[in-house]
Amino acid sequence: MRSVGNGVVSSLFGTKGQIGVNRGIAEFHARRPVLITGAGDCLLALPVEGLDPQRLAEFVAICAPAVPRLVITARRAIALGLDTATPVAVTADLDVDTILALVTDAKINCAFDVQAAGSVAAAAIELVKLSQGLPAVLIADFAAGHASERNIITVEAEAVARFGDEAVRSLAIASKASVPLNSGGRADFVVFRDAMGGSPVAIIVGNPDLSKPVLVRLHSACLTGDVFGSRRCDCGDQLNLALKRLEEIGGGIVLYLAQEGRGLGLANKMRTYQMQDDGLDTVDANTTLGFDDDERDYGIAARMLKILNCNCVVLLTNNPAKIDGLAKSGIEIAGRMPLETPVNADNRRYLTAKVARAGHRLNHLVTSSAKQSDAEGDLAPLAP
What we know:
The chain is of the alpha+beta class. It has two domains: 2-166, DHBP synthase (Alpha-Beta Complex); 181-375, GTP cyclohydrolase II (Rossmann fold, 3-Layer(aba) Sandwich). The protein contains 16 helices and 16 strands. The strands form three sheets. It has a seven-stranded mixed beta sheet. A hairpin with a 5-residue loop joins strand 1 and strand 2 (9-10). Helix 1 packs across helix 7 (157-169) and helix 5 (119-130) packs parallel to helix 7. The longest helix is centred in the middle third of the chain and has 15 residues, at 235-249.
């Protein structure tokens, strides 16, 4: 909050920390550096996303005499064979090819030294995740005065840590309208807005009785599956089946969430697809790129339901993490209904990994695989 005339506190601007994080995300979207401050450190951070030789040379020049270091997540460091639980700073011969190899290649062959990155550098990693870029940044010590001279945006490290919760609290209904569906029914589309610029949508099908447990589907947006019918996932099939179920029982809610690729964003999702094509499963592809196996947070979903006065749900899901996430955010879970969609040659490996690696409950996949193995005379257990 900021004080305005006569000492009145206004919510027009928000806190200095909120403003800094919002602007920092926008700068990272534009591939510009920001200054991250905290714990006595001032670090200039440049996202690796879109790095080219000219931008690297200019960053090195602006930081001189400080030498830039590459910060990667703990997950990425482990993928490179390092033993760490926190982000690390890598010192190496930092040409563009080497940097991109250290950030994206499943296997690399170069020498490098590492050290603990520290809390301010870790905040830079969290900021770049919020921008849905590659989870790595170049950092260098930088004087706050020099940042001011160059109009570089300053972001407080502590504000980055608080920003997710603040974004949830900022959620509000922006607009709504009734939309006819192909099935012949109608649904009310309720569009929300939050401080990050996101626009999650609640699709209210029929007339759910909010005094009783409501059938709800939390659906992460999937451009490839929902729109183009991709066969390598089950997302589009799950969405269509969920809508059918809601219409059959007379009402329910779909929350359509901007969490492409389990929270990675579309560009990173495509990067993990390439890694899967090269042999990794869906979980290892995420962690090899430097992300957690699932980056989604369901605080936004819980807040949407509360705004809609829906506090008790039966969840349409195969994923126990969604149940846990909603429950921890104050939504009562009255039950679970599975979504068993078709298994095909293109998504079987992906679905198998979700069962074996992420604990998804897909009994029809287990049965299908057992029948297939029996037909082949091989009853070996499922493997990712």
